[in-house]
Amino acid sequence: MKPFGYERATDPQAAATLVADSTGAVYLAGGTNLVDLMKLGVTEPALLVDITGLPYDSVEHRPDGGVLIGALVPGSRLAGDPGIRERFPALAEALLSGASGQLRTVATTGGNLLQRTRCVYFQDVTKPCNKRRPETGCSAVQGLHRDLAVLGTSDFCVAGHPSDMAVALAALDAVVHLRRVKGSARTVPLNGFYLLPGDTPHRETVLQPGDLITGVELPPPPEGAAMSYRKVRDRWSYAFALVSVAAVVATEADGTLREIRLGLGGVGARPWRAREAERLLTGRQPTEERLREAARAEFASARPLPQNAFKIDLAVDVITAAVRDLVGGQRR
Amino acid sequence: MRGARPDARLTGVTAHAFHSDFALRVNGADRPLTLDHRVTLLDALREHLALTGVKKGCDHGQCGACTVLIDGERVNSCLVFAVAAQGRDITTIEGVAGLAAPEELHPLQRAFLEHDGFQCGYCTPGQICSALGVLAEAARGWPSHVTEDLAAGVGAPGELDADEIRERMSGNLCRCGAYPGIVAAIREVAGADGGGAPATTGVAGGTR
């Protein structure tokens, strides 16, 4: 690991100025991913600006049913929050299905959004990787890619986004709150926060240098909506998703889908919002056949590779089961 | 307390020192240190404070052997830079014995002995610190991935069944496979056994 400076930020402006004005400076929050990447040599910051003392650590429930989650709220506390469990269970489920107990106590909401892919080549500095070192090539296409993405990928990168939390946030229409370097506030919809890899896979989000995530806002869920997070993985606990589905479903009295939102994990270059499937299902009866057709249509643009093509069939099954169970639960 | 020169903010990155003078509060005592920023909390505890109870397994946050408590929460100490832990209350396995009563093993430590919750013992300090975190989380009613009713959570640590403990402890690996004893030990302390099986029945004797 390269030597680095360390500063504790006492206020947001000082933190932003330090990061914007110093070469190789990055924010440090929980560090569960950043410290590991530094150990691996994947990331070599010259200065860590510790932001854990900044005042972004509360969960504020609003009268309208929305909530503002501070960027520094750790996953354990967010998943334990009674209001989140009661009204945004898909988010609590997603958090509790990710990482381990002692990672969730530290990993923050803002940091979770910015965690990097677990593609083995990204994490191995001896191998070519366009995301880690632009224009060196992608080792995964011809190598190990079973765990990687099929949606939104390019010839340059097939890495998947590893977050469970962000998949739930995608389905919940979350809004990321940012603080620009000069102090102005900016909001970005989560579904516009991540960039697709294209030919610049090293650029992952719309963040500008010095931008600081201050929180994540959840609008009130649709009236009468049921929601869930369903995750399929190689082992029952403490594993990344092969496929996951965050589903938010509201039905009319006759069972028609008034609103449906689907976030997909394990399959996308970013936390994937399944707009095509939603379009095909909105206003329709969620029959098994229609659910399967809509789920499959979402993958019409997929770029499966030999080891991860199975994810398409798996995702169709998981999407179908997730929505079927939610609709069934609502009817009870 | 930090090592950067006072004018660091004005002169840019080259002014930032690579080491700092600071204190870590460990098991109730302030321990002054001068450390390179690259030193993790795990290495600071083991190599600089001689607290070798905390163990280094994978060093990448995957095995849980390095688990300590920071402000009462379980944390992988291998993924925390020591300099970032200043001002926090750190408890290592060496400080666990005093938590419940002075000079006494913590009930969880006794339960691990009674239920044979280890073989080689390497993962045990992390298992015990993690289990302390589990009990604290359950006392707050926090649910896990396997909790039936997410909104209701758990009423008390005593409601944790074996599935709950396995899920909540999944960040602590035991290469020896002592999981049945580990789960039994935690269940007992959580109150799930309600004073059930006598300690001796859980001891495997000389079979290690």
TrEMBL record, chain A:
Assigned keywords, A-Z: Oxidoreductase
Database matches in PROSITE patterns: FAD_PCMH
Span of the signal peptide: none
The keyword Cell inner membrane appears for this protein: no
FAD-binding PCMH-type domain: residues covered: 1-223
Record-linked InterPro entries: CO_DH_flav_C, CO_DH_flav_C_dom_sf, Diverse_Substr_Oxidored, FAD-bd_PCMH, FAD-bd_PCMH-like_sf, FAD-bd_PCMH_sub1, FAD-bd_PCMH_sub2, Mopterin_DH_FAD-bd
Annotated Pfam families: CO_deh_flav_C (PF03450), FAD_binding_5 (PF00941)
Protein name: Xanthine dehydrogenase family protein subunit M
TrEMBL record, chain B:
Entry keyword set: Iron, Metal-binding, Oxidoreductase
The keyword Oxidoreductase is annotated on this UniProt entry: yes
Organism: Streptomyces rugosispiralis
One Pfam family, short name: Fer2
InterPro entries referenced in this protein's UniProt entry, alphabetically: 2Fe-2S-bd (IPR002888), 2Fe-2S-bd_dom_sf (IPR036884), 2Fe-2S_ferredoxin-like_sf (IPR036010), 2Fe-2S_ferredoxin-type (IPR001041), 2Fe2S_fd_BS (IPR006058), Aldehyde_Oxdr_Iron-Sulfur (IPR052914), Beta-grasp_dom_sf (IPR012675)
Protein name: 2Fe-2S iron-sulfur cluster-binding protein
Record CDD domains: fer2
SUPFAM superfamilies documented for this protein: 2Fe-2S ferredoxin-like, CO dehydrogenase ISP C-domain like
Boundaries of every 2Fe-2S ferredoxin-type domain copy: 20-96
